[in-house]
């Protein structure tokens, strides 16, 4: 059964509406959503009548219907105008909402992870983020929670363990890990709203986010190391058609792009991140090094040199546990987790581009983009100017 959430009094409803109003107006402006001004909320009336409070509630509920979860994600991960109080107001608003649809659940899931991420120091290790740690952070939202998770929540830990064993972003995206997490959330039904389940799913979302960034940063470092190795062999261009580059793409240009990606991936979220290109670029570099799979139609395989054979023995991107590099990647992932929030990455979207998802479906929490926001020509122009 769903947890019983105490009804708010008119004063609390009005306070919530006043906190949400500027956030919703900003959202409406960014995504061209029609939003009629509300005079009393505009003027900041302290103690309105009951009818005004009810009208304000209807105004926010109408906005709730228009604002999609992916818009909420993008907005909160790109704006500095929503402070901790505003984020808390959003979480509490959706938790007290009577509608328990899949879209509402996804908004609550995202907002709790976002709220927790903003509170959590970057130096905290994954092992420290247990249920008790998360519960303490979420007390302003959920109050004290009895941490006796039902058995069905154990599946989340199994998914996290599988994610930790992934050695590349491609493995995470195509290994069925993300689908398992989404399935667990869907199967929970109304039990998702149990306080202990909200704590468990918040922990799960946060640690999955960390795993994602850890692998993404690891892939970027692996690509850059591979480019250095290719340059040491005297190679100046490689075939990067699978990553939407040219058949003879200059390594020097690929290095500049990867360095710019490293900066971009540590900045705040923006739509159209070239994650598909990142995965495919690593595959292209691995193939050029002789340690990746050769696509059909590519040149016939050649005997590997001693250097290539040695490179192929070591799993691409493998980072020895406990090493200084592993610790650095973990710390970087923790920082990115806090600043970026939830990246849109999905194994489903990693299918060929002509296999589009069903129209009208809500983008999943993790979705690989086809990179519409990244312009190859504009990058070329930037190269020419530098």
Give keywords:
globular, about 375 residues, disordered N terminus, 17 helices, two-stranded antiparallel ribbon, 2 domains, mainly alpha
Please outline what is shown here:
This protein has 17 helices and 2 strands. With 386 residues, it is mainly alpha-helical.
Topology of this protein?
Layout: H1 10-30, H2 39-43, H3 50-66, H4 69-76, H5 84-95, H6 102-119, H7 131-137, H8 139-142, H9 154-165, H10 169-174, H11 177-188, H12 195-232, E1 237-238, E2 249-250, H13 251-264, H14 275-288, H15 306-313, H16 324-340, H17 376-385
Antiparallel strand pairs: 1-2
Distance between the termini: 60 Å
Q: How many domains would you count in the coordinates? A: 2
Average predicted local confidence, pLDDT: 76
Beta-strand residue percentage: under 5%
């Amino acid at each position: 059964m769903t947890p019983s959430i105490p009804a708010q009094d008119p004063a609390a409803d009005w306070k919530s509406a006043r906190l949400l109003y500027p956030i919703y107006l900003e959202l409406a402006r960014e995504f061209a959503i029609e939003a009629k001004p509300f005079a009393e909320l505009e003027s900041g009336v302290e103690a309105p009548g009951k009818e005004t409070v009810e009208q304000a509630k209807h105004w926010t509920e109408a906005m709730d219907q228009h604002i999609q979860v992916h818009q909420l994600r993008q907005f909160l991960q790109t704006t500095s105008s929503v402070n901790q109080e505003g984020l808390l107001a959003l979480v509490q608003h959706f938790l007290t909402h009577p509608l328990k649809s899949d879209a509402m659940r996804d908004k609550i899931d995202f907002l709790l992870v976002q709220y927790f991420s903003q509170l959590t120091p970057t130096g905290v290790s994954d092992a420290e983020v247990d249920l008790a740690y998360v519960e303490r952070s979420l007390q302003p939202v959920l109050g004290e929670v009895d941490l006796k998770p039902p058995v069905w929540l154990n599946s989340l830990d199994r998914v996290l363990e599988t994610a930790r064993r992934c050695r590349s972003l491609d493995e995470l995206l195509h290994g069925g890990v993300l689908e398992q997490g989404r399935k667990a959330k869907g199967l929970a039904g109304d039990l998702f709203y149990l306080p202990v389940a909200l704590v468990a799913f918040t922990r799960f979302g946060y640690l999955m986010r960390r795993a994602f960034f850890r692998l993404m940063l690891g892939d970027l470092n692996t690509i850059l190391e591979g480019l250095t190795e290719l340059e040491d062999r005297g190679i100046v261009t490689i075939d990067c058609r699978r990553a939407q580059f040219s058949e003879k793409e200059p390594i020097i240009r690929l290095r500049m792009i990867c360095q710019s990606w490293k900066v971009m991936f540590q900045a705040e979220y923006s739509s159209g991140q070239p994650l598909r290109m990142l995965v495919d670029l690593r595959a292209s570099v691995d193939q050029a090094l002789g340690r990746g799979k050769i696509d059909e139609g590519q040149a016939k395989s050649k005997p590997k040199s001693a250097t290539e054979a040695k490179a192929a023995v070591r799993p691409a991107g493998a980072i020895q546990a406990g090493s200084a590099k592993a610790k650095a990647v973990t710390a970087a992932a923790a920082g990115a987790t806090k600043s970026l929030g939830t990246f849109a990455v999905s194994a489903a979207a990693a299918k060929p581009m002509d296999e589009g998802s069903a129209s009208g479906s809500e983008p999943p929490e993790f979705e690989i983009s086809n990179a519409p926001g990244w312009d190859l020509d504009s990058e070329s122009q930037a190269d020419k100017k530098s």
